[in-house]
Amino acid sequence: MSADNPAFSAITVAGFALWACSWALESTADMQKLRFATVSATTGVKRSCDVGLWKYSRHPNYFFQWMQWTAVALMCLPELVDHFGRTNPYSAALLALGLVGCSLTMYWCLVSYTGAIPAEYYSVQKRPDYRDYQARTNMFFPGPVRRQSHTTR
Q: Which PANTHER family does the protein's record reference (predicted)?
């Protein structure tokens, strides 16, 4: 959708679908973590959450939150392209930089500033199995579980 064309473009629809899926997956990760924490508190065992989406990423909630912000930037692309034809290129380039900057800033924030890295600092101290969890599970981007090599001495 743009000012000159009120119909939704395929990119806008794809961006909205990405946003909706990411929202659902972030919510799922949060619920899985809450369920795990409730069971852990009941049993008194402090271990790392490695169930559901947490098996594939140590911070799936942060990853899918970042994907939501990236989806919003994607939804803005048709209007940005339309803007390139209506204004000077410097203004449009600044807007494009702002869209990319929004996604990159959220990534930095969710990984380094308020999110994954600070959380991991405390998790290593509180959970004895967290280093093992770090060795087999990607920090931010979901991926396959890595096998650990156990060597005997």
A: 3-OXO-5-ALPHA-STEROID 4-DEHYDROGENASE (PTHR32251), STEROID 5-ALPHA REDUCTASE C-TERMINAL DOMAIN-CONTAINING PROTEIN (PTHR32251:SF17)
| C-alpha closest to that of 99 among 68, 128, 72, 64 | 72
State the Cα–Cα distance between residues 66 and 72, nearest whole angstrom.
Answer: 10
Over residues 35-58, the mean pLDDT reads: 94
**Do residues 73 and 103 touch, judged by C-beta distance below 8 A?**
yes
Mind giving me the DSSP string for 33-56? HHHHHHHHHHHT------SGGGGT
- Whole-angstrom Cα distance, residue 30 to residue 4? 40
The CA distance from 2 to 82, in Å, is 7
CA distances from 146 to 55, 56, 68, 84 (A): 10, 9, 27, 45
pTM of the model: 0.88
pLDDT bin (cut points 50, 70, 90) of residue 46 is: confident
Supply the angle between the helices 10-43 and 60-86 in degrees, to the nearest 10.
160
Domain ranges of the chain: 10-136
Q: What type of residue is 79? A: E
Tell me the percentage of the chain whose pLDDT exceeds 70.
92
- Hey, what are 29's tokens? 């990760």
Q: For residue 153, is pLDDT > 80? A: no
